[in-house]
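Tutorial handout. Part one gives the primary structure; part two gives the three-dimensional structure as tokens.
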Amino acid sequence: MPEKKLLFLSPCMPRPDGGGPAQRAYHTLWALAGDYAVYLLVVGLKDRHLRRVPSPPGGLAASAYISVNPWAHPNLLLRMATQRLAPRVYHVLYGFPSEWACAAPGLVHTAATAFAGVQFDHLHLFRFYMEPFAEPY
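Part two.
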């Protein structure tokens, strides 16, 4: 029987020595890797921790990192600035949760191409606000 494929979407790089979210992502990833072929997709605002993820049991099937750079996407910069400076205006203009501010259409498309052609049996959203990036899968 072929191994089930799981897409693990995270806003932070899973690391045992990172902050709270990075450590939780790391331990969740390790737990899931025992039962699935795990594909890791990180869509993050910071890329200073782009170290290799210590290989979980069975290893990772593949991994991809998409850096969210607001300066490269004017629409994203406007969304994030509005969300931080005028949260009420943000909700009137955009009508979706502020955690989705970084989910600009161009970045969602980039995320969709990370593992194009791979059919996943399961998706794991480390944070629910990663949902726009899961939609193409």
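Part three, for discussion. Residues 29 and 81 are 32 Å apart (CA to CA). The chain is about 35% helix and 20% strand.
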